[in-house]
Amino acid sequence: MDKIKIAFFDAKDYDKNSFIEANKNGDFEITFLETRLTSDTYKLAEGHDVVCVFVNDDISSEVIDSLASMGIKLVALRCAGYNNVDIKYAYEKIHVVRVPAYSPYAVAEHAMALLLTSIRRIHKAYIRTRDFNFSLNGLTGFDLHGKTVGVVGTGKIGRIFIDICRGFGMNVIAYDKFPAADSGIEYVSLDELWERSDIISFHCPLTDENRHMVNAGSIAKMKKGVALINTSRGALIDSEALLEGIKQRKIGAACLDVYEEESNVFFHDYSNHIVNDDTLARLISMPNVIVTSHQAFLTNEALTNIADTTLANIKEFFEKDTCTNEVCYKCDKVATCKQTHDKKCF
Ligand code: NAI
User: Fold this and answer.
1) pLDDT at 289
2) What domain count does the chain have?
3) What is the model's pLDDT at position 332?
4) Do 304 and 281 share a structural domain?
5) Which of 133, 216, 327, 332 has the most CB atoms in a 10 Å sphere around its CB?
6) Which residues line the pocket of ligand 1, CB cutoff 6 A?
7) Residue 342 counted as domain residue
8) What is the mean pLDDT of the chain?
9) What's residue 344's pLDDT?
């Protein structure tokens, strides 16, 4: 068989290094493209077998039709979330595979890093001491020990975050649409979670159902001074409502690794530009908001796992009649195959 040709969109140096290493035997021909996959750029995939994409590439119905008409068989996501793919529309047109887990520790540890940075004012102290300002005024934080953390989504990342929180002596409550049996986790309703939590951390996928689950109504139910951590997907939070909650002093801290309009700005250097997103600019200007640009996954371990699993997914798809990590509309109404299929789904 000829080498499998991969059009690799939105390629960054760290992606190239890990994929070149994972492809050291030269089984694949990879074209690294800096641009994102959109309805304007899909033509760059002409002549390839697979498109490899990340969180902010746009795999809409229009792009799916275009890729399928060019003979492309597979969309290989090099991430876990797939909210940027029209999975329902893709069914029977193009296959989609993903990397279900690459390092849940990376994301859970980043969530705790953001929380500690924020509530202990490390981001302020770092800048101060670099300027030889050793004053402690305004740096007072609070203990995590004894505080209640509400975890939304108790899958791979949520469970690790829970373990980390328990290590800090925190009380953990959780909400999950599909609570795990015998997990020893105290599950509560969403309303109870909003009301009881000092800290709330999001570890669930973004779906039509939970888009803007943090909104004016849910914020009104939260404790005054609550700290929110979002390392999941930006649109779980209505950014305007968040801003209003911060301005009203209801929200004590917001730790955001994701942002609902991130695809316009994240992963790019705009330090010499005027950023047009007023909501993001206002959020970043707040002393109690920390933004990282979808960085939670970014560890050496995760990058190696992403590259190895993505290439293994592609190889499996072309060499065997299996779809271990296929994302399939048919199996579970926009959920994954859960590795139950021994054949391609169509
Ligand atoms: P997972 O699939 O192991 O767990 C997700 C959990 O959310 C499951 O227990 C599921 O039952 C629950 N869930 C599903 N719908 C829900 C709803 N409407 N409300 C509450 N819970 C719901 O996923 P994993 O690996 O723990 O990842 C969680 C999320 O983290 C991903 O969906 C992705 O959006 C995000 N992520 C972010 C990264 C980053 O770099 N910031 C990297 C990797 C994942």
Assistant:
1) 97
2) 2
3) 55
4) no
5) 327
6) 80-81, 101, 104, 107, 152-158, 175-178, 203-205, 207, 209-210, 231-233, 257-258, 294, 296-297
7) no
8) 93
9) 60
- Using 70 as the pLDDT threshold, list the residues of the chain that sit under it: 1, 321-322, 331-346
- The atom number, within ligand 1, closest to the CA of 210 reads 18
Q: Identify the domain containing residue 211 by its residue range.
A: 104-291
Q: Examine residue 196 and state whether it is found in any structural domain, yes or no.
A: yes
Specify if 193 maps to a domain: yes
238 and 220 within one domain: yes
Q: Which of these three, 291, 308, 328, is where a domain ends? A: 291
pLDDT at 244: 98
Considering the domain architecture, whether residues 204 and 311 belong to the same structural domain is answered as no
Please say if 186 is a catalytic residue: no
Quote the pLDDT of residue 66.
97
Point out the catalytic residue in the list 98, 159, 233, 260. 233
- Would you say 83 and 57 are in contact if contact means Cβ atoms under 8 Å apart? no
In this structure, are 133 and 32 located in the same domain? no
- Ligand 1: residue of 203, 256, 299 to mutate (most ligand atoms within 8 A of CB) is 203
| 262 carries an active-site annotation | yes
Amino acid 235: pLDDT: 97
